Structures are given as C-alpha cells and as structure tokens.
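// run 5 | inverse folding | seed 20
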C-alpha cells in the first residue's frame, strides 16, 4: 500500500524502496543496536527505537525535508497519524542536522495502526506523529525507522 497525495508525489523519492525492503528481509532486526546504524552516508541509515506507547496527543506532528521515513514494527503495536497534505504550518524552525521540523496538527490526517511485521512509508514533507497507544494500555514497541535519502 502506498497512500500519497498526487500533488506532493515525487517519484524519484521512492526509487529506494526495494533497497529498504531487502534490508528489512535480510537483517536480524531483533539485534540491531539502539540508535543509528547501517549508515550509508546521507542516503540511508537505520534508526532502532524501543519505547512504551503513549496517548498520541502527547506528540507533535513533524516533517522531514531530506529523507523518507519507513517505520517497521519489530515488536508491539503502534498508532501513527499521517497527513498526505504537505501544506503544513511550521511551529518551529527546521533543524537541518536532525532533518526535522515540528508543524501544526493538520486539519485532516489518517490514523494508521501498525502491528508486528507491518511498515508504513512516510514521504518528505508529510506531517506525521508516532508512538501512539492502541487502546487504553501502553505496550512496548521495538521499531526500525529507515531513513531514505535521494
């Protein structure tokens, strides 16, 4: 499934999906070190995260300008909110080192629930927030975020 707004779709941003899927299938994702690993310059790296989910309202929407985010759930269940509308309103300046900018909550966004083995690909400039609880109890999540540059 690729869900994107046609007005913001840039095909060249998505040419690296096969490489990302090959990495997910060929790597023992239960043993990747927490933090950044498997880096290939600015074009690719793996960010391994572990945390307890929280009410999604505790998190702000963010966007990235240099890389796509592929969120893959190794363990647990998580809600992610994503808006394909890239007409966002910034609430912070852009942090070039971290490739992140926080934005206002979009008027319309989609709720995606990811379970073990699921992934979602979030395009550049697409507002999103992560780490959300599904239901009323937090769960432990181990997640791989592949950062895919051009």
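// decoded
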């Amino acid at each position: 499934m690729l869900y994107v707004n046609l007005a913001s779709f840039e095909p060249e941003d998505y040419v690296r999906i096969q490489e990302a899927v090959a990495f997910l299938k060929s790597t023992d994702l239960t043993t990747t070190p927490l933090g950044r690993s498997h880096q290939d310059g600015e074009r690719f790296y793996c960010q391994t995260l572990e945390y307890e989910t929280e009410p999604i309202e505790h998190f702000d929407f963010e966007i990235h300008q240099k890389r796509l985010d592929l969120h893959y759930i190794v363990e647990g269940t998580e809600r992610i909110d994503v808006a394909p509308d890239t007409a966002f309103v910034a609430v912070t300046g852009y942090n070039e080192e971290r490739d992140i900018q926080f934005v206002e909550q979009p008027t319309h966004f989609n709720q995606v629930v990811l379970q073990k083995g699921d992934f979602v690909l979030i395009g550049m400039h697409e507002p999103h927030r992560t780490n959300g609880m599904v239901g009323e109890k937090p769960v432990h999540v181990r997640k791989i975020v592949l950062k895919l540059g051009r």
